[in-house]
UniProtKB/TrEMBL annotation:
Pfam families: Exo_endo_phos
Limits of the Endonuclease/exonuclease/phosphatase domain: 38-147
GO function term, MF aspect, one: 3'-5'-RNA exonuclease activity
Domain of life according to the entry: Eukaryota
Xref: Gene3D superfamilies: Endonuclease/exonuclease/phosphatase
InterPro entries (UniProt xref): CCR4/nocturin_mRNA_transcr, Endo/exonu/phosph_ase_sf, Endo/exonuclease/phosphatase
Protein name: Endonuclease/exonuclease/phosphatase domain-containing protein
Length: 166
């Protein structure tokens, strides 16, 4: 099995090397030419304020639907049911990502990357990008979270190509 290059190695490729790598990546899509992209603001656990959700009631002896213990498995369940090829998730709580979401997505056959909104701060939230494991990252571009997500997502998606790693 060939080891996929690291992001730093990919970013150092010349245009000719990048083109050669793109041409070497076989197409492994479903054959219908479709690309299923998901964008979802999952609302970071650290941003939930109970008074902002007065319509959410908790029945006696029932789990609180706003708690991480309840939300994280439901988010995983929804992600598992959507059949996407690539996803951009916003407001992803760092602790929830590390403990639950990332391991679940990796086990489901995806590669993942999380970017904290404020890397100097412990905890918090950020963006997560998820893509099929049989794809390879050809190039990454980093921008601040103040840029339009759609422009960043378009750049990232242009960098993907389907690939089977022998």
């Amino acid at each position: 099995m060939t080891q996929q290059p690291t992001i730093n190695e990919l970013n150092q490729l010349s245009i000719a090397e990048e083109t050669q790598l793109l041409n070497a990546c076989p197409n492994t899509d479903s054959g219908d030419g479709s690309l299923r992209v998901l964008s979802w603001n999952i609302l970071a656990q650290c941003l939930i304020k109970r008074d902002q959700f007065p319509y959410v009631s908790v029945a006696p002896n029932s789990p609180n639907p706003l708690s991480q213990k309840t939300r994280a498995p439901r988010i995983c369940s929804v992600l598992g049911s959507l059949g996407f090829d690539a996803a951009a998730l916003q407001e992803v709580d760092v602790d929830q990502w590390t403990a639950i979401l990332s391991p679940s997505l990796v086990a489901a056959g995806f590669d993942v990357e999380h970017f904290r909104k404020n890397p100097e701060k412990k905890g918090g939230h950020g963006l997560a990008f998820v893509w099929r494991k049989d794809w390879c990252v050809v190039k990454t571009l980093t921008s601040t979270l103040t840029h339009a997500l759609t422009a960043s997502l378009e750049s990232i998606l242009r960098s993907f190509t389907s690939m089977s790693i022998p």
